[in-house]
Write a structure and sequence with these properties.
The chain has 15 helices and ten strands. The protein is of the alpha/beta class. Bound molecules: 2-acetamido-2-deoxy-beta-D-glucopyranose (4 copies). The site of one 2-acetamido-2-deoxy-beta-D-glucopyranose has 2 residues, from loops.
């Protein structure tokens, strides 16, 4: 019979196709498109997925699900593989097209869009406004995020939406809500995968009462989750996590990827963190710095109470508790020492925090127990020029925004000189800084549903850029 004779040929073809598909799925990093990079990158920090030699396809071994699925199927094998590869290649093709469009925008110093553009970013606050604009256009046009369905609230699929970790819940909720243009309908159309894990909720619910600071329980919860999704679906394994992300504002979030035997899993994961301390493993080229936003109740943005620049009698303002080394030095040197430097730990009852920010030229934003401070967003909203007093802090959206144009960055060792440094800023320079603060304000506004160029879109854009910089497939 003809079918008997064609058996060996069929087998050889099958093996060949299997081999082909496995090699197609191997992970090829290192397609840094040098888009908006170089960003502030510390020399030793670049040993990420993006530059590391691929170990695949050995990891995606012959026991991999794709092999199994293929063999189980009754439809012609070649067609099946083509379908899966077709989808996968389409994703990569999509990203390649986006890169091309961005490069073109950089070259031509203008954008291309098939719809009316409501806002055109221009000016020195952007590292490259053409690249950013086009990249934002491409993101809106193409970017699809798949959120795994596994897991139940409150540890999964829900996070805090108010107070200082609130941005964590908003990112997750926005991307899971039906209204988001980024929501993928099927994982095969996704450019990226979100792990809907809330570190803040895990800490809140599993560490209650709080009798230990040991991270084991947190790590186990996250590892269990990735175990489940990596066994159930092919997506995690095929990229070794490089097209997956997890967003958290909680201080403990970086610890889930602390190097431990067997935890190398997380070295490619895109971590979207408020606690963006480059001295503690935060990698600017791979990870995303998430702005910390103190969301008060249901009020997404604080009221705008900022005064005109001529009507700001206070040189510098700060009020905040003694959290951490930097604040210790700051309060010790400046609290109650100088009329022009309004520095408090606890603000007296008759004074209003936001009003004071609105009456100050400069607002001090020192690190606390962790590098991030909600004061960055608060001062920008109040039209107060942020003075960032921190070490090793990778500022949010640094790949797009040039913070030196609308803020003052002061390392902790220069705290005693703060007043001199601020006095040295000429009136002209101050007015420029002020205008630019007002200009970048839209990028720090929180809206639900999110709007183009607002803070949620900026966060998603940061993830999009990291994804653009990784090329999967051959
Ligand atoms: C593949 O599966 C077989 C049988 O299930 C098992 O014995 C073997 O260790 C597996 N190989 C790998 C590399 O996982
Ligand atoms: C992904 O890799 C892990 C570890 O190698 C393996 O146990 C798991 O079965 C793989 N998942 C799929 C869907 O093949
Ligand atoms: C930039 O492109 C837009 C639309 O693509 C066009 O309307 C506009 O005139 C262009 N601007 C310049 C300076 O070329
Ligand atoms: C950032 O990390 C370094 C190194 O671990 C640490 O010394 C520093 O205190 C951290 N910064 C903050 C504000 O936690």
């Amino acid at each position: 019979m003809a079918s008997t004779c064609s058996w060996p040929i069929f087998l050889v073809t099958l093996l060949f196709l299997l081999f082909l598909s496995l090699s197609l799925y191997s992970y090829h990093p290192n397609e840094d498109i040098k888009l908006l990079f170089p960003i502030k990158v510390l020399p030793n920090n670049l040993k990420t997925a993006h530059t590391e030699a691929p170990k695949a396809p050995a990891q995606h071994n012959s026991n991999g699900s794709r092999a199994t699925t293929t063999l189980k199927l009754t439809v012609p094998v070649s067609k099946h593989i083509k379908n899966i590869d077709g989808k996968f290649l389409r994703i990569e093709k999509d990203l390649a097209e986006a890169r091309t469009a961005i490069r073109k925008a950089i070259r031509q110093r203008n954008f291309t869009s098939d719809r009316e553009e409501s806002f055109i970013p221009r000016g020195c606050v952007y590292r490259n406004s053409y690249a950013f604009h086009q990249s934002h256009i491409e993101m809106l046009k193409r970017f699809k995020v798949w959120t795994y369905k596994e897991g139940e609230p409150p540890l999964f699929h829900s996070g805090p939406q108010s107070s200082i970790y609130g941005v964590e819940g908003h990112v997750m909720n926005e991307l899971e809500s039906g209204e988001s243009p980024f929501k993928a309908r099927h994982p095969d159309e996704a450019h990226i995968f979100m792990l809907p894990i809330s570190v803040a909720h895990i800490v809140h619910f599993l560490y209650n009462p709080l009798v230990t600071y040991a991270r084991d329980q947190l790590m186990r919860t996250v590892t269990d989750y990735t175990d489940i999704i990596s066994h159930k679906y092919p997506y995690w394994n095929r990229s070794k996590g490089a097209d997956h992300f997890l967003a958290s504002c909680h201080d403990w979030a970086p610890d889930i990827s602390k190097e431990k035997p067997g935890m190398e899993l997380y070295k490619n994961l895109i971590r979207v963190l408020c606690n963006a301390n480059t001295s503690e493993g935060f990698e600017p080229a791979k990870d995303v710095s998430l702005p910390e936003i103190n969301i008060r109740g249901f009020e997404l943005n604080p009221p705008m109470v900022g005064q005109h620049p001529q009507n700001r009698p206070i040189l510098a303002f700060f009020a905040g508790r003694l959290h951490g080394r930097i604040r210790e030095i700051l309060l010790d040197r400046w609290k109650g020492k100088d009329e022009e430097m309004q520095v408090y730990d606890i603000l007296p009852k008759h004074l209003n925090y936001q009003e004071l920010m609105g009456k100050s030229k400069f607002c001090l934003c020192p690190s606390g127990y962790e590098v991030a401070s909600p004061r960055l967003v608060e001062s920008i909203n109040a039209g107060c020029v942020p003075v960032i007093v921190s070490d090793y802090y990778e500022l949010p959206f640094s790949d797009v925004l040039d913070w030196t144009k609308f803020s003052i960055v002061i390392p902790s060792k220069r705290i005693p000189e703060i007043k001199t440094l601020l006095k040295d800023v000429s009136e002209t320079k101050y007015l420029k800084l002020y205008k630019r603060v007002i200009k970048v304000r839209r990028h720090f506004q929180l809206n639900r549903p999110a709007k183009p160029f607002d803070v949620l879109h900026m966060i998603i854009h940061s993830v999009w850029l990291r994804r653009l910089n990784v090329r999967l497939s051959h």
